[in-house]
Amino acid sequence: MAMNYNAKDEVDGGPPGAPGGAAKNRRPDNTAFKQQRLPAWQPILTAGTVLPTFFIIGLIFIPIGIGIFVTSNNIREIEIDYTGTEPSSPCNKCLSPDVTPCICTINFTLEQSFEGNVFMYYGLSNFYQNHRRYVKSRDDSQLNGDPSALLNPSKECEPYRRNEDKPIAPCGAIANSMFNDTLELFLISNDSAPYAIPLKKKGIAWWTDKNVKFRNPPGGENLEERFKGTTKPVNWLKPVYLLDSEKDNNGFINEDFIVWMRTAALPTFRKLYRLIERTEDLHPTLPAGRYYLNITYNYPVHSFDGRKRMILSTISWMGGKNPFLGIAYITIGSISFLLGVVLLVINHKYRNSGNTADITI
Amino acid sequence: MKEKELKQMTIPAQRLMARCAGEEKRVGTRTVFVGNHPVSETEAYPAQRFCDNRIVSSKYTLWNFLPKNLFEQFRRIANFYFLIIFLVQVTVDTPTSPVTSGLPLFFVITVTAIKQGYEDWLRHRADNEVNKSTVYIIENAKRVRKESEKIKVGDVVEVQADETFPCDLILLSSGTSDGTCYVTTASLDGESNCKTHYAVHDTIALCTAESIDTLRATIECEQPQPDLYKFVGRINIYSNSLEAVARSLGPENLLLKGATLKNTKKIYGVAVYTGMETKMALNYQGKSQKRSAVEKSINAFLIVYLFILLTKAAVCTTLKYVWQSNPYNDEPWYNQKTQKERETLKVLKMFTDFLSFMVLFNFIIPVSMYVTVEMQKFLGSFFISWDKDFYDEEINEGALVNTSDLNEELGQVDYVFTDKTGTLTENSMEFIECSIDGCKYNGVTEEVDGLSQTDGPLTHFDKADREELFLRALCLCHTVEMKTNDTVDGATESAEFTYVSSSPDEIALVKGAKKFGFTFLGTRNGHMRVENQRKEIEEYELLHTLHFDSVRRRMSVIVKTQIGEIYLFCKGADSAVFPRVPVDEIEPTKRHVEHSAMDGYRTLCVAFKKITPDDYEKINRQLVEVKLALQDREEKMEKVFDDIETNMNLIGATAVEDKLQDQAAETIDALHAAGLKVWVLTGDKMETAKSTCYACRLFQTGTELLELTTKSIEECERKEDRLHELLIEYRKKLLREFPKSTIRSHKKAWTDQEYGLIIDGSTLSLILNSSQDSSSNNYKSIFLQICMKCTAVLCCRMAPLQKAQIVRMVKNLKGSPITLSIGDGANDVSMILESHVGIGIKGKEGRQAARNSDYSVPKFKHLKKLLLAHGHLYYVRIAHLVQYFFYKNLCFILPQFLYQFFCGFSQQPLYDAAYLTMYNICFTSLPILAYSLLEQHINIDTLTSEPRLYMNISGNAMLQLGPFLYWTFLAAFEGTVFFFGTYFLFQTSSLEDNGKVYGNWTFGTIVFTVLVFTVTLKLALDTRFWTWINHFVIWGSLAFYVFFSFFWGGIIWPFLKQQRMYFVFAQMLSSVSTWLAIVFLIFISLFPEILLIVLKNVRRRSARRNLSCRRASDSLSARPSVRPLLLRTFSDESNML
Fold this sequence. Notes:
Chain A: Residues 1-28 are annotated as: Disordered. Chain A: Keywords: Cell membrane, Cytoplasmic vesicle, Disulfide bond, Glycoprotein, Golgi apparatus, Lipid transport, Membrane, Transmembrane, Transmembrane helix, Transport. Chain A: Belongs to the CDC50/LEM3 family. The structure holds 2 protein chains of 2 kinds. Chain A has helices at residues 2-12, 47-74, 132-135, 140-143, 147-151, 173-176, 207-213, 223-226, 255-261, 323-352; strands at 77-81, 102-110, 118-125, 162-163, 166-167, 182-188, 195-196, 269-276, 289-297, 307-314. By secondary structure, chain A is of the alpha+beta class. Chain A has 2 domains: 46-75 and 320-347; 80-315, no CATH class. In chain A, the strands form 3 sheets. In chain A, strands 1-10-3-8 form a 4-stranded antiparallel beta sheet. In chain B, helix 35 packs antiparallel against helix 36 (1028-1050). The radius of gyration of chain B is 37 Å and the shape is elongated.
């Protein structure tokens, strides 16, 4: 703004009728800036500079695209819908609210073995976690362990703020609607009893969420004590301090809870449920074969025409299965390359009949 | 009886006023009591109240500044819109907080208010200077010192030499015995000569304060009206007897405010019009805020975007309720409404939903655009005042920018209206050369004591005699008056005199004669005194002056020498003189005259004849007789003059240079080449103006002139019929010439026959106000058709308001062309104010024009760079800025709009609130500001040397529908790419190699990151002039965005209710897929732009090559055209008054 100040002097130095111009030399400064003659790079794109760029982009994008595409294709993924709306589905019985707890089992077969770490997701459809009323219905101070917010949750949590004159912890619609189906995976082997695949429930949330953003309220050793004076969310079966038996995965820092609290971007979404870590021996994590999924069916989605799925997926360096990026890169790379060729031809032609081109500057 | 007289007088006045179309009708008369003395107890006039003598040009006072300024500001659509949005945010539960739009709005309003307040303060200061100046008023026979603003109507005011009149005065008496005074109205109508004003006979003697106080009189006059040259009134003087003596008053009795008293010690006058009712003030038009065409485009775009916004909001609201009609969508178990929400009326809910959507999408019309535009204009205008090319050594000043709102308008000008005197010309004439008896003398390099011959025969016996005769003729044959400057230093008095004349030519001639040793010493008792080369004083008795008129084109004097010989000296245009001298004398002189005329000088021929006493007797009788004639006096005089001026002998010819301003011709050439139409509007005589127009190449040799002047019309009995005929005839001519002018391109029409139009003030008023019926409209439209076909138009004898009328007329033409007026005198003020852009020249005639202009420059030549370089650049810059702003905000908001389809139309913002607020203020504002201040898509030097480039942007080319749609589609394309690119990216279960999932804020942040990079890089692609500032700002903005995002997500902010962004950005960047997607999306968004640039560039290269070829050939062929090559002589145009 220094230049602003100077400028004011210049412009208003000679107000109408003001005398005394004689003494002051009003000759404008001959600086490059004021005379608009700053040294400048004036790029002119010519065919010579642009054509190689097109080729280079083509040459870079196509291999990247192919790499991504291949990687994505190598990812194994299986999706099992267990909503149970179809009468034939084993989970159909769980649609009626009377059966509690309802446990259903779905059989499936892995045609190919899943190698490396396998990730287990649950997926919901037609579930608007990104609805404005829903997204804002939380109190991050409470979740961060603020004692005052614990007992006096934010107004944003309405109508899940208080229940029977007690503050709800954790408050809000998001927490209230936390996914509470339990999924268990069993490998069926012919010679022995079904083998329960070990599911790891830690390490599924963002590290920063788990360690910084979410904190249990301070207080005594006993978690229940720390949550004293609060009540559980209306739809929950058990209070927040009973979410898990392990101490570092209980209360607000329960990872299932944290994962749920990160609202999804789209109405059809997946959330990480469990990790299946690869075993040390040479066996694949999930060998090909028959499996069954044991579901403790608590979460109602039928009322809003939603669907529930369980997804098993391996992960590459670029994440889950996603053909989009690979195809996109290959397409753009090819177009770029092609355009390079076309422009080369045009440029060549133009050079031959150069001067007849019409003038439009 | 008195009543009757009054009526008779007022009727013509009313008729006059009724004729002045567009002027406020002021009916009735006012009665002024001289000295505010009651005339008698018996006659009681109803007390009239008049306004005081305060001049107010300021807009605000301290008290009304805040409400008035706020009102004015909120009258702007945009500001009002943001106010509404802000109020909605305050009252309704909206997705974004009121701060996001309230803060920027407050900022904009404050900045604008400060700027306007400051400007008004300057005006107050200027007003005060005028209002507080001291004047002397005669009160109770005493001279009382007062402030100018205290003058009341009826006060007797004393004005001394070289003071300006503080209000409109009726002259009562001057120091002289004949009751005359000399006045120059330079600052009013631009005429710098002295005019004589008269006092009424009965008051001449009242030369002292005491005597003037005894005067008992009333003045009845019309109510104020703006015409400077009309005044009708009557003074009733009550001497000792109660019977009043009535004398009529005319414009010759009225001294106008703003005029200056010259050559008269002091005068007494009675104030009749004061303050804002003076003719000068009435000639100022109200200060209307000028809006540039770009601003109008902005408003148009704004309406389009407002429409888009409303459509979006309406679509979303409708779809929301369609979607919600499914009960499980409206209120699923996991997302229940509060009690309050359930109870709200559905209609009300829909309305608030609509408003919420508006708020959510309101960033599509960014408040920051106005801040940026204001800043760009404000800061950008400094480059004009900083430009050292506009610096003039003589006045030690550069350009001045009075308003920064119109910078870009300088690049859009279609019509240039220029004043002549002082603008095109220096307003100073110089004697260049003469031809005596067929020998040419170059006057410039000569010593005082003699002439040296430059060509022709060397020896001539009577050469010296002829030379002296010639110089005597120059000294005698004129109407120049001497003006002695009353310098304090008495010793130098003899040297301190100047010549005063209505015609600068005459002064130049007399000065020229002085250079050669013959000095005109003035007229004393009817004797002209001349000091000859031998320092002797010769006296000549001035017997008769045969005044100049434009039909005869010459003037003569008849003088008697000391020894009793009587001579007639005549000077005039060659065409007027040659037929009256012996044929054999003409040839050599004619050659010289033509040669001088080709050099662009104004030439005059000088002739003489000796008159025998007998002849003189006859002539004298004739002249006296004819001067007293009551009927057809003019015609009779003409005839007598004609008879007298015969059988003369040619002595020689003179050449006078009407000095054009430096590079005036080149400037006009450049303006023509840039496709501008240049009109000269002058109060000056037609002949003078015409010759100037030739000299500055407004009219070229091949230009065919169409004249619509009093001269060409008065030949006929019925003026209107003749006018009609002429109009029709000219139109036919032009339409024949340009049968398909609408189809033909600019360039083509250029090479054809060019037409110039000359019109004078009275004809113009005939056309504009001829009668109230439809024919006047018809005239006007025909006239306009003619005007539009002519490349150059000269309007002479214009009153200030007529100039404005012309400008207004052109302004309202089809397609509303942009007009620019340039002038230096107060007579140009009204046109400067009327036109889109007013430019003042800091001339010799005061600072009125410069003060009222939007920009002022020292010289006319500066117009070239101002328009071609500055105007062009400013236009390109601001046009790009505007388009870019709309573009980047559509890009910004479109993903948010699309997101509504995926979030149940719940008004969920896609981006975090910080991003929403900062996007326009921090992340993307500085690069475009730097661009809009520094961009030079074409070099300044190229712009000035290639005026043709100016045509590329004419007609607001960059803000037309085409470019606008291009930008809009580009934005729509990019916005769609951003959103759906990210959408498809999110179809996977995880983007990270550890299987963790991202939420909605990561989605928004990816879109936003791509957005910020794309719009910034898009600007980088458009930047053709990368200074270090551009580099710094563009890369700095991107770096700042990244830095800010890390910072914003790196801390649990205690004041935030939600920690949405906590580590979102960092987490996002830990994914390879995201990186790849961001790069890919940026690239694909810019791809069409890159492609377009490449294609354009190939074409531009070819154009440039052609251009350089052409330039090379031009420089070979067109070089000699710099010097005006005039094949016709000027002598036809030169004249005297």
